[in-house]
């Protein structure tokens, strides 16, 4: 189905639409949760169709397992465990683990150590 890269303007439009869908999902969750889940589905379809990612701000707001919209404190909870952000989906019981600021520290350290190795007598 996917036929290579889409032009940038198309991806921009897709991103904007996904943002709108997720915003709607958030706004309507408390009154119409089933609509929110549908918005997520629509956003995911756009994401596949245009071969582009869900905008980062929203990528943690839906369950990667059941694709339901997650509203913290209502159908999901977030905890920090072992330096990982655990997002628990109460719809299906799935837990998403997201590393919490790990890469920065390691990169800096690797750089530092490679400098130290230089042998100057
Ligand atoms: Zn789920």
UniProtKB/TrEMBL annotation:
Keywords: Cytoplasm, Endonuclease, Hydrolase, Metal-binding, Nuclease, tRNA processing, Zinc. Its EC number is 3.1.26.5. Zn(2+) binds at residues 63, 66, 89, 92. Residues 102-121 are annotated as: Disordered. Residues 111-121 have a biased composition (Basic and acidic residues). It catalyses: Endonucleolytic cleavage of RNA, removing 5'-extranucleotides from tRNA precursor. Binds 1 zinc ion per subunit. One of its GO terms (biological process) is tRNA 5'-leader removal. Pfam families: Rpr2. It is found in: Cytoplasm. GO terms for molecular function: ribonuclease P activity; zinc ion binding. It comes from the Archaea. GO terms for cellular component: cytoplasm; ribonuclease P complex. The keyword Nuclease applies. Its cofactor is Zn(2+). Belongs to the eukaryotic/archaeal RNase P protein component 4 family. Consists of a catalytic RNA component and at least 4-5 protein subunits. HAMAP family: RNase_P_4. Part of ribonuclease P, a protein complex that generates mature tRNA molecules by cleaving their 5'-ends. This is Ribonuclease P protein component 4.
